């Protein structure tokens, strides 16, 4: 984890007195988190995940927690937060904002099949449709304004050719506003490790802590750039087609979305290239990092530029 906040069983027993979840049976740390501290919690009332937020503030968190609850109540397989005795999903534990959410069944997949890609596409469309009735809004914290803001910080770490590519893509993306594209609540980080499967069925969508209000097509591009790629980062036609067609069966694409698709695929790749560059080269002081390879999304961006006229398109 990036910053690990220790919680003892006694700490948690005291905290859980404010929640109607029964007696604590087991507390077990989850070692794979990066942004937050996470524990599996088992009580006499059920199975949960406890999250202590290491970066997000108590002012920011209601957007995410209320969105998760809203989606779960609309039938999307999102983990529902547990309210405390005051009716709030957010508490404080060991000095950190903290939340308890229902633990979902299933496990993530490393190499998704065509049916699994289709299932994720359909669930993302359901999420977008349900999100249309969510009234709270949140600007994208790592959108185009952020890309421009951190560009001077990351450029000194790059070879000349990579720096030129980054500057040109930020400039290219600034030419497109897409104000007419459908917008709403998006997940913004729907990678393979944030979806749980039971067989070919999506059992859970997790980690909404990059969610925001933005272009729906951007969310699709982010997901496709992770779920539907070959080993070299190029789009796998069969998996991409399955994802996109299953999405369209739930929420058909608009004509302007079909035209914007190649540019949005590039935007999705750029967002994670810049984020990984920033997290790799400029970690916060005192932070233990598990930063991922920035080069992965640089290569994806290069491929989306190269294959612009041969990309699987939106058909629905």
From the structure above, extract its key features.
Aminoglycoside 3'-phosphotransferase, Chain: A, domain 2, 5-stranded antiparallel β-sheet, two-stranded antiparallel ribbon, 316 residues
What does this structure look like?
- There is one protein chain.
- This protein starts with 8 loop residues before the first helix and ends in a 10-residue tail after the last helix.
- The radius of gyration is 20 Å and the shape is globular.
- It has two domains: 9-102, Phosphorylase Kinase, domain 1, CATH 3.30.200.20; 114-310, Aminoglycoside phosphotransferase (APH), C-terminal lobe (Aminoglycoside 3'-phosphotransferase, Chain: A, domain 2, Alpha-Beta Complex).
- A hairpin with a 2-residue loop joins strand 2 and strand 3.
- 41% of the residues lie in helices and 16% in strands.
- The chain contains nine helices and nine strands.
* CATH class label of the largest domain: Alpha Beta
- N-to-C SSE series? HEEEHEEHHHEEEEHHHH
> For the terminal residues, how far apart are their CA atoms?
41 Å
CATH homologous superfamily identity of the largest domain: Aminoglycoside phosphotransferase (APH), C-terminal lobe
Look at the structure and give the mean pLDDT: 94
Task: Fill in the CATH topology of the largest domain.
Answer: Aminoglycoside 3'-phosphotransferase, Chain: A, domain 2
Cα-based radius of gyration, to the nearest Å: 20 Å
